[in-house]
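Pasting as-is:
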Amino acid sequence: MTTKRLINIGGAVIAFGLAYGISSGQADRSRGTALGANGGVTIPRPEVARIVSGTEIAMVYIGRKSCGWSNLPWMPDAVRDIRRLIAATADSLGMSFVTIGVGLDRSSTVALEHLRKMGPFDEISAGHSWFNLASQRFIWNAIPGPEGTPQILVLLREIRLPSLSGAGGFEIAHERLLTRKVGTFEIARWLAAGAPIPTNLFRQKKEID
């Protein structure tokens, strides 16, 4: 069944649709369905992300309960739809996939309430406003970008686990930004296009490795 939604942002109406083999609620608990160039692609989506050595795609959602734009009625479904599309892309590339939710309200309780509505997420960071450690990492320091909510980032990174002998440690390496969408209009247009991510960085990574 194909569900179409109309989004009105600043007078501009954007329509997008996703084909679902099962209901959206069921998809969040068991399977995700993404509509790509070859039609509907259904992939397993476990409750807890697997942690394995290798290349990983991470989707980061940053929002606030105190931000009106982050709480537009269609945003929770849009975030979940984007998650399914990115998960399908990661699966097609043979990469693991993880979701990270960042809530920038001053109160961690309030931030968790917002993230619960937008999730589920594999990892969360909540509270302390713009001094939130994840905000420092994904907006101000390691991966700098515009100050604003809501926004969604897609990252490419390497997950390294200790060897069987115990050498080494748990490490995230070579983390780089694939795409960043800031504001509801950018997010809606990106979703309408199928939430594509650039592939040139994948080729560069293969050349480096």
